[in-house]
Amino acid sequence: MDFVRGQLVRSKAGRDKTRILAVLAVEGPMLWLADGDLRKVGDPKRKKARHVAPTSTVLENELLNSDQSLRNAIAAYEAGCAN
């Protein structure tokens, strides 16, 4: 699976298991992830691609610039999935 900047993923392993995160960068098998809450945009988490499950949702670049807009986008995604 190829990951792209802005794609939402669900963590499958680690302390952040089941959390929704956004891909900020892809470096080979490693992803840089943030959710704007526990992992800020300025301090993303480095995680192996095999430890996340991809979703079909890709956020626009403007939503990845600040923690608040990223939190709002993830909350909207989670609210849409609950229905």
TrEMBL record:
Keywords: Ribonucleoprotein, Ribosomal protein. The keyword Ribosomal protein applies. It comes from the Bacteria. GO terms for cellular component: ribonucleoprotein complex; ribosome. Signal peptide: none annotated. InterPro entries: Ribosomal_eL14_KOW (IPR041985), Translation_prot_SH3-like_sf (IPR008991). This is KOW domain-containing RNA-binding protein. It comes from Candidatus Gemmiger excrementipullorum.
